[in-house]
Design goal:
- By secondary structure, the protein is mainly alpha-helical.
- Helix content is 47%, strand content 9%.
């Protein structure tokens, strides 16, 4: 348990594993969650996009992304929702990175490993000669 300032309002509160904001801001966030969830539960709104949900509820996308990542909003129930890739920001539905970013990182790792293996092989083959200049 740590004494911290609320990231939203600056009020002092005791941070623990469950609470990352003060009581007042936590309640406000829960009210926003309830608003979004009630909106999405309606049959005609289940296919709403993030922009539509934000427009209809007034709740920021950042909060919705947080709830999706924590599993509070299940993407299986809402086909047009997602959250940004940690690398490029494109909207994804699973993992932390989109497929193009994953492919790029894997390609870069393969290139790096190949280069490191080549350097190690070159170091094994290197022969060093020293000249005794005392004669």
């Amino acid at each position: 348990m740590d004494l911290m300032n609320c990231p939203d309002c600056g009020e002092l509160f005791v941070k623990n594993a469950v609470r990352e904001k003060c009581e007042k801001c936590t309640k406000e966030e829960e009210q926003k969650y309830d608003t979004v969830y009630k909106f999405l539960r309606t049959r005609e709104n289940r296919a709403a996009t993030m922009d539509r949900v934000e427009e209809a509820t007034g709740v920021e996308k950042v909060l919705m992304y947080k709830w999706i990542r924590k599993g509070r909003l299940q993407l299986a129930q809402f086909p047009n929702l997602g959250y940004p890739c940690d690398s490029c920001g494109i909207i994804i539905r699973e993992g932390k990175l989109c497929q193009p970013c994953t492919d790029r990182i894997m390609r870069d790792l393969t290139i790096h490993e190949t280069e490191e293996a080549r350097k190690a092989e070159m170091n094994k083959r290197a022969t060093y000669m020293s000249a005794d200049r005392r004669n």
